[in-house]
Structures are given as C-alpha cells and as structure tokens.
C-alpha cells in the first residue's frame, strides 16, 4: 500500500503542475486547446487527489503518523510541489 501511495503522491503532484501549465501557458495562447485539455487533465487530477487523500488515511497507522503528521500530509495535497516533499519526508519503507 505504501508503494501505491508513493506513486499516487508523485502522480498527483505532476497532474497539479500540468493543470497549472494548462491554465497559465495554454489558455492565453489557444483558448480552444485549453478547453479541450481542461476536462481530461482536471478529471485525472481530481481522481488522483481523492486517491491521495484516501490512501493517506489508509496508511496512517502503518507509517506511525501522529495527527500533526497526517494534517501536514493532507494539507500538502493542496499545495504545488508539496506532495513531492511528503513522498520524500513522510513515507518510509516502501
């Protein structure tokens, strides 16, 4: 389960950055391409976000996270690049 969480954390972080790139780079230059890409990128990011949150709750006891650690892991899902930090610092023995 820890390997799955590590993969999901990295994939969620990448999808978040791709979503931002679509919004900041593609939207100003090509509105049609932006609209075409928005749904599949957004859907993938949404599913990965939900998976990240659920898997974090599921592996909480296996990783011996305190409430504070779990809070940091959950808040990291809302910040760009933070899931990469969580994957490095909080996830052990994968």
Q: Report Rg.
A: 15 Å
Mean pLDDT: 91
Biggest beta-sheet profile: none
Q: Percentage of helical residues?
A: over 70%
Number of strands: 0
Approximate shape = elongated
Protein name: DUF3817 domain-containing protein
Membrane topology: Multi-pass membrane protein
GO cellular component, one term: plasma membrane
Organism: Flavobacterium silvisoli
Give a topology summary:
Elements: H1 2-29, H2 31-58, H3 67-76, H4 82-89
Helix pairs in contact: 1-2, 1-4, 3-4
Structure description:
The protein has one domain (2-89). The model has no long low-confidence stretch (mean pLDDT 91). The protein is elongated. It has helices at residues 2-29, 31-58, 67-76, 82-89. The chain has four helices and no strands. With 94 residues, it is mostly helical. It is a multi-pass membrane protein. Pfam families: DUF3817. It is found in: Cell membrane.
Keywords:
94 residues, 4 helices, mainly alpha
Task: Offer a concise description of the structure.
With 94 residues, this protein is an all-alpha fold. Helix content is 79%, strand content 0%.
């Amino acid at each position: 389960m820890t390997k799955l969480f590590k993969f999901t954390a990295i994939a969620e972080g990448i999808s978040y950055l791709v979503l931002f790139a679509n919004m900041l780079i593609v939207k100003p230059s090509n509105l049609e391409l932006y609209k075409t890409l928005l749904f599949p990128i957004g859907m993938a990011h949404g599913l990965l976000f939900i998976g990240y949150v659920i898997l974090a709750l599921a592996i909480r006891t296996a990783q011996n996270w305190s409430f504070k650690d779990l809070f940091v892991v959950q808040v990291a899902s809302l910040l760009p690049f933070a899931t990469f930090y969580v994957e490095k610092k909080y996830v052990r023995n994968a």
